[in-house]
Amino acid sequence: MDEPEPARRSRALIALALLLAAEAALLWAAVVWLILELLTDQPTSFASALAILALTVIAALWVSAIVVGTLRGRTWIRAAAVTWQLVQVFVAIGCFQGLYARPDLGWALLIPSVLVIVLLFARSVVQATSRREP
């Protein structure tokens, strides 16, 4: 019996998945760094350090799930990815201002977020993620 060939992924969908995967990888790197810091340094507030670690783990898991959903062409990924990108945009805006402003980090967050948002609304990505889930 001949099975239908899986649909080819568009370049926009592949670029979207790669950008999201890079974001997930950086979040996992942050998790490792936070764990190492927790083990080697004395935090001012142990409870706050654990809370930040827990939030970073949750974010890393969520963005990783978005990557998997993107590769599977799931419909829910567009809303999830836009939400995450907006969080990053707001953090980036915060990086541009204040006493401890870090414009370099702001741009590092803002540019990929804008690219992901643009890719999410590309016709081929919308088509690939609009199919009904089985």
From TrEMBL:
The keyword Transmembrane applies. The keyword Transmembrane applies. The chain crosses the membrane at residues 12-36, 48-69, 81-100, 106-126. Keywords: Membrane, Transmembrane, Transmembrane helix. It comes from the Bacteria. This is Histidine kinase.
